[in-house]
Design a protein that fits this description.
The chain is α+β, with helices and mostly antiparallel strands. The chain has two domains: 31 residues; 129 residues, Immunoglobulin-like (Sandwich), CATH 2.60.40.3340. Strands 1, 2, 3, 4, 7 and 8 form a six-stranded antiparallel sheet that branches. Strands 6-5-9-10 form a four-stranded antiparallel sheet, with no helix packed on it. The radius of gyration is 18 Å and the shape is globular. The two termini are 35 Å apart.
Length: 163
């Protein structure tokens, strides 16, 4: 029994180290690793990220100040930043798309919904879209990203668990 336990711990550590190595390799090479927060729309991908405003302000003040410059200062009831990337991969190169109007509708676990037009802001590799939202409730959020392009509207939805 003890050998099985030691073997399981060894395997867990091995997978953890391999995962960290892959993540660092992806970050260093500028490779986007698809996650459950990435959806394929056929001709491009939509990725989202949700970040606590308090953590951004504390740990990444330069990024926070850039977001304030583009979105304005968050109100006291806005607790999180929603970031949206539209991107495609061509010939092994990632291209970020920025000629769109993007909105987000964030529905809280208690079914309170907020829909806002997202503003464009520069990112390390291209433009992203984003905005401040109240995500103070714990539970499952439903996030709809609405993309307006050349008179057409496309919508993609994500579920995000706030713990």
């Amino acid at each position: 029994m003890r050998k099985a336990y030691i073997f399981m711990v060894f395997l867990g550590m091995l997978f953890l180290l391999l995962g960290v190595k892959e993540t660092r390799a992806a970050e260093d090479g500028g490779v986007v690793v698809p996650t459950p927060l990435t959806k394929n729309l056929g001709d491009y991908y939509v990725s989202i990220g949700v970040f606590s405003i308090a953590q951004l302000e504390k740990n990444f003040p330069r990024a926070y100040n850039l977001l304030v410059k583009h979105h304005g200062k968050p109100t006291p009831n806005q607790t999180h930043h929603l970031a949206v990337s539209l991107w495609k991969e061509e010939n092994g190169k990632i291209t970020y798309l920025s000629n769109y109007e993007v909105e987000a509708e964030v529905r809280s676990p208690i079914f309170r919904a907020t829909r806002e037009k997202l503003s464009k802001y520069p990112h390390q590799y291209g433009d992203n879209y984003g905005g401040w939202f109240d995500m103070s409730d714990k539970g499952l959020y439903h996030i709809a990203i609405i993309i307006h392009e050349n008179g057409k509207t496309r919508k993609v939805t994500f579920d995000y668990l706030m713990q």
